[in-house]
Fold each of these.
Amino acid sequence: MAGPTGPQVKNHSSDARHAPKGARLIDRSRIGMAGHSLGGASTSWTMLQDPRVRAGINMDGAFFVPIPDKGLARPFMLMGAGEVHEPGGKDFTWGRDWARMTGWKRWLTVEGGDHASFTDYPLLTKRSARELEITRAYVAAFMDRHLRERDQRLLDGPSGTYPEVKFWK
């Protein structure tokens, strides 16, 4: 069928018969985003553009697009490598944008970590799962707290289980 501007396409997006397999398993009221490097940097930008994303994590990514002065009022966690992302470290964007985060927030660094610490790369190079274990624990705690509304003491301050994780501000 053709209309005045070309072919007409029927929109089936609201038709459950055409939904992707497993789509009903997704709870659209509980969307969180976590990313590493450029993916981490894009998390805050995505949250500013899409209010459906309720919580976000930037893992070791510089903020290429600053959070605007009006701020970001949803939960956000910064998780980065040691000296580079500590306050006053080489990446000044974290300090700048931290001040513009007006919701629940945490700034964590992993002592002795590097840029690849938040990937599975340490399993190959260091033959250690420790950094992966830390990343999984803190990301899961953050998402559980903000998307499932489950109290997570791990996010309240330093932990004896993970002494290499420093809390800032």
Note: The longest strand covers residues 53-59.
Amino acid sequence: MEIKDLIKMYWLKCFSQILQLKVVCIGNVPKETGMIVSNHISWIDIVAIGQLLPAYFVAKSDILGWPVIGYLADQAGTIFIRRGDKKNILITAEKMLSTLNQGGSIIAFPEGTTTEGDDVLGFHSSLFQPAIQSQVMVQPVSIRYVGGSRSLAPFVGDDTFVMHLLRMLKMDQINVELRFLTQLDVKLGRNVICEQARTMILEQVVSA
């Protein structure tokens, strides 16, 4: 593990403590290089998953405008996507492939946006192509906020990062469950594993 990965994970653990974030992991956190895909509820998802393993996030470029977080995400090597820019999507895919080929893992949210946490939107299959090309494992992970966190953690609508952060800091504790599901066979092709990943995560979300 490189020094910058250790620093990134350490910072996320510190931020997790500031937020009073309690993460419960079910299943095995992957140790090998691969692509982790998850449903997306809040920016807190990044803190919850990112502190567990060295990986590079794929995130929307809007984050660059967030105070502090934007700078840190950029310095941590986050791969940014500009929504609606087809040329940028190709560049993003190339960066993802290069990262995977060099032994780095990637964490992506294929829904492309956040939800209230009670459903899983359609996944963008193009995000799975780099994993197909590099032949690395794909690991679906379901995220679920528990208790009072379930209604307050979602970062949706017209909410701003700063206002949402202030609300989270007022909470005594933020409870989140990460369930690491069965790894998928990339030989099945991107459309198949895309649908399989979404179905597996959706089953966990609706059964909660």
Note: The CA atoms of residues 184 and 196 lie 8 Å apart.
Amino acid sequence: MLSGFADNIATDFRPDLVRWRQLVTPAWLAGLTAGAEVEAPPAADWRLFEVGCGAAVLFEQAHVPGASYFDTACIEQLPLWNKVTDQALLALLLARGVRHDTTVILYGRNNLAAARLAHLLLYAGVADVRLLDGGFARWQAGGHACARGPAATAAAASGFGTIFPAHPEYLIGTPQARALLARGDGVLASIRTRAEFTGQASGYHYIAAGDIPGARWGRAGEDGDVNSMSAYHEADGSMKPAAEIAAQWAEQGILPGTPTAFYCGTGWRASMAFFYAWLMGWPAISVYDGGWFEWSQTPPAG
């Protein structure tokens, strides 16, 4: 057991997760940002980012001390909100001082935004990506101090330090999604509400209602709310026990070891499901970046 502040937070990590270091609590992050000794400390070179979409003004009003702001508009591109090119993604990370061996800790006011970046960091090859469980709302609920003003800055990195992207298998496109379905032993997991999955609703004003034939329902949250992942979260926004998440997936034939690509409308909810599966140590997982939005606009194969 560590001494001092760490005595109170050493048991905060989740024993039900294979990658338990990668899901951190507000108490752990408060200790780290205060300069205390913490369990499972990050590398000497670490970065903390609040991830949002058009929320820079809110960030300047209140944020976790030491954080910088990272907008998802930088990592997604029109018309389908898929990730930017590899060259653009690499440039963004280097400009923010992120190499493959940099520990990157993420949180969001909407933690789906943080999960979106977390997935792309893993795709890029950042070895130590961590997510604040419950995001900024849980930080505030814990009574932790906030900072005001512009983001912290860091020197740019001169190089990524390894091949880029190091894990291209973590992201697939429409041709690969079609091939996965055709294999018979692969799964496309729809991380959408029941109404979206059954075609009763779109969830987005710019996406037609419907879903991918042959996909399995991986669940999301409340109907009518594309920002809800209540099937995965406790009331305080923290991740449900891994066994509960695995059980609800198993009901739909989504099983560990089966090649599985998670998708949603445009990628945020799918990224959260991917990250949780990754925390649980599931192999052969990916995100179908285009999701239902791209699939619905792509002519059928053949």
Note: Residues 233 and 239 are 5 Å apart (CA to CA).
Amino acid sequence: MKYSLPGKNNGLRGPASVFFALLFFISTPSNAQHMADTAMLRLQKTNAVNIYYQALQQQSGLYNGSEYVQYTHLLKEGHPYFDTSVLTNGRVYYDRMVYSNVPMLYDIIKDELIIQHYNKVFLVQLIRSKIDSFYIHGHYFLHLGRDSITEGNIQEGFYDRLYDGKIKLYAKRNKFIQESIPDMAVVRKVYQKDRYFLFRDGTYHDVYTESSILKLLKDERAALKQALKNQKIKFRKNREYAMKLMAEQYDVLNR
């Protein structure tokens, strides 16, 4: 099932007419003269702008995906989402437009971005091909692997950008469901194992161990090992942080 709202408006109809009507009303001298506090007038104008953008968002193309049905009730342990199973406001660059403060979930198992429909009744699975990037829980995800020529070393999907410099570090968040049948009943548990990719010289390199990164950055091998030692970082115990530090230090050494 797909959800969409009426398309483009002509002239000043729809949300635009609401916006300008509200501004006209609150800016008319006969109304403004009764306001002793000018801050109140500014607040009303701000509210008018917010109402306009809310109306515009409801009539946008953001809600044209298919209905998403949650399946957490089928899982005994864990959930399929990034960080939390609670809807959290985020930002998405969708169909060449940026939408902010959108309640969303990132289903890692399906690699799909889910948003709450504006009527708060449905969840909508956005059309993946229209998503360029999104920001949630302080993490910036990019849609990579769509260009088979320049991005042929990674699979198409959403990648968490951990470091963005001359070289770049990405994490592919992966969750999977493992089934077991104790006592003649199916038990499903969610496990997570992320993959990491270092982008250098136009190529994505699959990295996971300390040695795999040092092999790629061998011209600064000694300095990077020393940086980890100085910070008292054990790679296996703090893999993601160690990778970010090594990438950052490599850029510092090659300015």
Note: The chain is about 25% helix and 30% strand.
